[in-house]
Structure formats: structure tokens, C-alpha cells
Amino acid sequence: MASLPDGAKKTVGADKNDDTAAFVASARKLGVTPHVAQNINAHRGSNIDGRTTRHTGYRSSQVIRKRIEEANGWIKEVAGMAQTKHRGLGRVGWMFTFKAAAYNLIRLPQLLPTG
């Protein structure tokens, strides 16, 4: 994170598992806004407070993150990439690209305007 160029606003997205005081503090120390999914449960509260969650950038980051996770989940569960049948980066990469393209074709009607 420290090697990112200066000037632009820096954010980092992470899963609920990274909603720890150490991760959030280290990100803020580096001048990076943590867009971490809040881990709110009965045992403890979230380390992401209103300084981050009140901004529209945090909300849009979480929406985009959900969209990415939906694609990954579909590729793993429906397209069968949870356990590959091939070996080697080339073959597995080709299968992932093929299945990601299939997911895009399935999503295409939702993206096109109706009427």
C-alpha cells in the first residue's frame, strides 16, 4: 500500500476477517482508507467507524465488492471451478476465462436496457 502514487485518494477493500484494529490502524497510518466489510457480531463491534461508513465511496465499494463476489461464487458453484479438472496455470486460466465469459453472457440481459 505504501508504494501507491501520491495525490489520489487511496482505499483498500478487504473481507470481514480483516476488520481488526491492527489492520485498520496500519491502513490509516499509511494514509489509506480501509473499505473493509464490517464484522458486527455479539462478541465485539466493528473497527470501521462512521469516519469511513458515512461516505458514499464506502457504500459503492461494498456494492462493487458484492458484485465481484457474486461472479466468483457463480464460477465456483455453478460453473464447477471449486475443484478444477485440469492442471497447470495455462489450462486452469483458460477454463476460468471461459467460465467468466459464460457468466458475462448470463448477466448480459440484465445489463441491456429494456424496451
What would you note in describing this structure?
- This protein is mostly helical and 115 residues long.
- The protein has 2 domains: 1-54, no CATH class; 67-115, no CATH class.
- It has 4 helices and 2 strands; from the N terminus they run βαβααα.
- It has a two-stranded parallel sheet with strand order 1-2.
- β1, α1 and β2 form a beta-alpha-beta unit.
- The chain is extended and about 40 Å long.
- 8% of the residues are buried.
- The model has no long low-confidence stretch (mean pLDDT 82).
List descriptors.
single chain; 115 residues; mainly alpha; 2 domains; two-stranded parallel sheet; 2 strands
Question: What is the topology?
Answer:
Layout: E1 11-14, H1 21-29, E2 33-36, H2 50-53, H3 56-77, H4 89-111
Parallel strand pairs: 1-2
Helical amount: 40-55%
Work out the count of structural domains.
Answer: 2
Evaluate the radius of gyration. Answer: 18 Å
The total count of strands amounts to 2
Cα-to-Cα separation, first versus last residue: 45 Å
- The total count of helices amounts to 4
Q: Given the C-alpha coordinates, what overall shape results?
A: extended
